[in-house]
Design brief:
LysR_HTH_N, D-Maltodextrin-Binding Protein, domain 2, transcription regulation, DNA-binding transcriptional LysR family regulator, LTTR, 3 domains, DNA-binding, alpha/beta
Length: 278
Amino acid sequence: MRDLDLTQIRAFVAAVDFRSFTAAGEALGATQSAISVRIDKLERALGARLLSRTPRNLGLTAAGQAFLGRAREILRLNDLTLDEMNTGGAAPMARLRLAVSDHAAGGRLAEIVKALQARQRLVEVEVVTGLSAEMRAVFDGGEADAAIVRQDASRREGALLLRQPLVWAGATSGANLAGGVDLVALRGPCGVKAAMTKALDQAGISWRFSFQGGSVLSLQAAVREGLGVSAFGPETLPPGLQRRQGELPPLPAGNIVLYSHASAPVRDLIAQAFRTGL
């Protein structure tokens, strides 16, 4: 009888979620080579190649895509069993207050909340959304049990959920940059806005803010209407927009992190729901 190794499965799922062996190792307390070895052993056990690997990209093969959902379910059942046994069948949590940055979840927030509510121990989830700085303030002020935000340069605490690449997008492509760039951005302090302006400044490209909104949804609408270009993560990139990667300077990836006052099982549950929802 053959058994699958949970450590290997967890390494595979982490590599997919973080899109990097190195980041997966950091999250699991292992080295990059250890993650690679675990996934190699898992592939041999399954008799299929799960990941396609190039120096710049880590993607799923057809077999990996087919196995990913099953892998997540295996880990979910394992974690649920340990949680229930360790708590001795404790009463359900009546409420979880969650603060989520627009840039972190985008339009998939409903999927994340449903994933949380699917667990019997979380019968009520209260969610507030806004800018990352606002959501950190809500958490720091004790008004949320947990916060999921895009990490800025001034803070290094929080549990890493995933690395979020940024891409330029606009209503059209091939625009003349001689007159500068019209930028669409969030109001107030914002790590994505800072990344855009810094990249343009370093490339010697002039820019101005043509629109500053209060939510990512407002930015998406403004870009669709041709008011300017903006940067989005994969979770918030609107369909139908033109990527402007070749025309504008590259943008740095950022960290999506979890701050939590909740117990370890609940914290792990939030992280799992977030990664599954995305």
